[in-house]
Design goal:
By secondary structure, the protein is of the alpha/beta class. The protein is 39% helix and 15% strand. The chain contains 14 helices and 13 strands.
Amino acid sequence: MSKLPHITTSIFSIMSQMANEHKAINLSQGFPNFPVDERLKNSVAKWAKEEVHQYLPMAGFMPLLEKIAMLTQISYNRKVNPLTDVLVTAGATEGIFATIQALVHPNEEVLILDPSYDCYETPVLLCNAIPRRINLNDDFTPNWEVIGNAISSKTRMIIINNPHNPTGKIWIENDFIQLEKLLNLYPNLLVLSDEVYEYITFENKHISINQKINLRNRSVIVSSFGKSFHITGWKIGYLIAPEHLMKEIKKVHQFLVFSVNSIAQNAINDYMEVVQVEELGKFYQQKRDFFRNLLEQTKFKLLPCEGSYFQVASYKSISDASDLDFTKKLVTDYGVATIPLSPFYADAKQTQCVRFCFAKDETTLQNAVERLMKL
């Protein structure tokens, strides 16, 4: 008997497969198609020839842990102990899985804000815990009245995603004030903050749990080198959490992957000495603006994109079809693959919106919009 009978192939795999079958331009799955920084590739080549092919320490390569701590200090003015508060993970997904497995117990509840990324619910179910899926407002901001009513003494964790995938929304100061009020009301409530797009924000800068003194002692923060450095296939990220939470997460991590790829950790450690992460927002803002200017020529209505490398657009003026049917038609008839928003909702809410990934080179984006202009 299946532990996860309702789990099928993810919408990301489905749309990428359809893109391949129909030779469509793939703006669905969130991976860049432009070259990785030569300095990073050269570092990988260098370390592949060195004797660094055996296990690194379970928590991560110590020089890299120290650089993560330094980056956290520079970015958020938070001092963390690299020995106790930082963990290198096999991608953000492994970090999320290990965190939930370590900290959530059977029959406890975990609050998930929809539309939500698809890796949150499964580890909750595997804990024999209960996922509570709560819809965000129509503009994808948190509805704190609804969230507050959904939380009880049974709620162990709330998962937040900021900047948000799929919508590109970022939280404002008041959201953190409301979250702090909830934690004050429920002393056993923890926060899992998915911040993998933290360095990809635009006009309004990202606010991190790292900056919130009254929240961070009960929070686990998820970051991603894969997203920040355009190396999604490396599957390498990290967690930051206070020692009393991290020691439990490490117990799961130890028996899930033990330690993370040694060559990748050495290469990223080198790269962090030369890369300027604060330039990422400018880099992606240029791509966002380029893509939005192109899409303005189509019948799509663009929603705000405040962070991440995703652009949500409404197709209400184009079609009355469901978002899944509409995205399939885009692939088969127009040769462009996107992602519908309904699979991000537990109730399959129809918003008549699709998500484009603009982490692509300009030629790819231009060719895609030329096809979309035929709608």
